[in-house]
Design brief:
The chain has 400 residues and is an alpha+beta fold. Among the domains are: 200 residues, no CATH class; 40 residues, no CATH class. It is built from 16 helices and 12 strands. The chain has a 3-stranded antiparallel sheet with strand order 3-11-10, with no helix packed on it. It has a 3-stranded antiparallel sheet with strand order 4-8-7. It has a two-stranded antiparallel ribbon with strand order 1-2. It is globular and about 60 Å long. The structure holds zinc ion (ZN) (3 copies). One zinc ion binds next to loops. The site of one zinc ion (ZN) has 8 residues, from loops. It holds the Pfam family SET. It is an enzyme of class 2 (transferase). GO terms for molecular function: histone H3K36 trimethyltransferase activity; histone H4K20 trimethyltransferase activity; zinc ion binding.
């Protein structure tokens, strides 16, 4: 069942109860112009994907800020070790500020991040500390997960671990539980569907294995409600439906910074050519696998419903986990603030295809203005299949 937040207080917006099936929505209480920042927020928890980190995408263990320099990143991604990036002052990485956990060596972009991670969850999750307790369960948990989830990754078991550790470490444990319980919830049947989607055919066995390891790591009374079979499935579903992708890259930061330089025309043209060539080289080696990637849970962002014609979109302008929700067109006071749960490619597809992806991944049928306006259009795909749009899950039409 959807639960709602009434306790968020950000000027210009409010979370409202709008009844089933959506449960709640985020509404503008003042007008916004296209490009305006609607709100900014830090996640409740954030975590880089396991394979992404293994492949050498180095980011702060707390805020996901890149730890590689832009040139270093370009060397790794292009395979060209002698490449020199001009305008080195535009590299965003400040290695002099980097530090690590003295116990386990996990790396951070600055002391602040290290201290905040320690204060929020790292006391429970610090590996060296756990080794002393004779426990390597965390590594085991990540290994089991990695064997289930080859790239492209969409979720992280460590995000679940960080939720439990955050509660376990909190002074006010009930308050910490409440923070996460505010996020969108589903019925038990829906949770099962999401777990199925996230973990694949063997999801029952996998839920059991993951839950068993988690239960051995997290013994505190405050988190036991998430370690029952039902509770664990609800936690997986919570991450599955609310997880927001976060991507950071020192190279794209450098490109952004050099592009803002005031340069003579000729230098500008040379620079553009250099950047085009660099991206071609990188694409040849890495494809589109360029960023530090992870996922995070946000309180306000999770209250934003989907529209195929969104009026807002999340941005990550600080090259870390700080989410900035911006208006993509003018928004009137009273209008619901909607984002797209679909990527640009999926958003450009037919109503039928969009509905299929949304149903499978988010378990709802979209009734946004675009979908309603297209509802009378003849859908070739669904006609051919001889159904009315309520096709079975085995329909593979979107996986082309
Ligand atoms: Zn950081
Ligand atoms: Zn540590
Ligand atoms: Zn729609």
């Amino acid at each position: 069942m959807a639960e709602c937040r009434e306790d968020m207080d950000v000027p210009g917006i409010e979370v409202r109860v709008i009844g089933e099936p959506k449960g709640k929505g985020l509404f503008a209480v003042k007008p916004f112009k296209a490009g305006d920042v609607i709100f900014e927020e830090r996640p409740l928890v954030c975590c880089q994907f396991a394979w992404n980190a293994d492949y050498g995408y180095a980011s702060c263990d707390f805020c996901m800020r890149p730890l590689e320099g832009a040139e270093e990143n370009a060397h790794r991604l292009s395979g060209k070790k002698d490449l020199i990036l001009p305008y080195p002052q535009c590299c965003p990485t400040r290695k002099e500020n980097h530090c690590e956990c003295a116990l386990c060596g996990v790396r951070y972009c600055c002391v602040q991040c290290k201290d905040e991670a320690w204060a929020q969850y790292h006391q429970v999750l610090c590996l060296r500390k756990r080794e002393r307790d004779g426990s390597h369960k965390l590594e085991m948990l990540v290994d089991v997960w990695k064997n289930l989830h080859y790239p492209p990754e969409t979720a992280s078991i460590m995000l679940l671990a960080r939720i439990l550790a955050t509660v376990q470490q909190a002074q006010d444990k009930d308050g910490a539980v409440h923070l996460f319980m505010q996020l969108c919830h589903q019925t038990v049947n829906e949770q099962e569907e999401i777990a199925h989607k996230l973990l694949g055919e063997q999801f029952v066995g996998q839920l059991f294995t993951l839950r068993k390891i988690m239960s051995e790591i997290f013994t505190d009374q405050s988190v036991q409600h998430w370690l029952t079979p039902e509770g664990f499935q609800s936690l997986v579903a919570l991450v599955g439906t609310n997880g927001q992708g976060v991507g950071t890259s020192p190279l794209s930061e450098w490109v952004k910074n050099v592009s803002a330089l005031k340069l003579p025309q000729q230098d500008k043209e040379n620079l553009d050519r250099f950047i085009d060539k660099l991206y071609d080289d990188v694409e040849e080696v890495m494809g589109s696998f360029l960023n530090n990637e992870g996922s995070a849970l946000y309180a306000l962002q999770s209250a934003c419903n989907h529209s195929c014609e969104p009026n807002a979109a999340p941005n990550f302008p600080y090259s870390n986990f700080q989410l900035v929700m911006c208006a993509v067109r003018d928004i009137a006071a009273g209008e619901e603030i909607c984002v797209s749960y679909l990527d640009d490619c999926a958003l450009g597809r037919s109503r039928h295809s969009r509905h299929k992806i949304l149903r499978e991944n988010y378990l709802f049928t979209c009734h946004c203005s675009k979908c309603e306006s297209e509802s009378n259009e003849i859908d070739v795909t669904s006609e051919e299949e001889g159904d009315d749009g309520n096709e079975s899950e085995s329909d593979e039409e979107i996986d082309d």
